[in-house]
Amino acid sequence: MNPEDTLRSSPLVRGLNADSIAFLESVAAVAEFGAGQLLFEEDSAAESFYLVGEGRVGLEALVPAGPAVLVETIGPGALVGVSWLFPPFRWSWAARALAPTKALVFPGEAVRRRCDADADLALHVYRTVAEEAVRRLHSTRIRLLDLYGDRRP
Question: For a designed S-S bond to 105, which of 31, 63, 97, 114 qualifies (C-beta 3.0 to 4.6 A apart)?
């Protein structure tokens, strides 16, 4: 995985100015996860977010008295984690590598601080994360319909 190519091909930077891209490059680190390894646990502190470069990540929801349910599979180029941007900064899902995975990891607090000082970056990051959150909600709805069926009257 080439970190620069992974970032520059992402919606996270599409349309951003060079300074904002350079900032994101400067705070990004490469993280590697083995198949089955957790990126984060549901309800733990959401301190970072990920951009998948290689591999696949599954978002899981905890179910009372049962195994976690796979809600969505995320592949290369996609963001993992939106909870880092909004208080109370706790993960709503668990994320698990479904295959050996390499990702860029970004420190949430540093990105939030930069967004506070840079309105253009803030608008772009919030829009990108909001679009991802809406897409995930739609995906979750479809998954729930698959699991439980359409029970409309």
Answer: 31
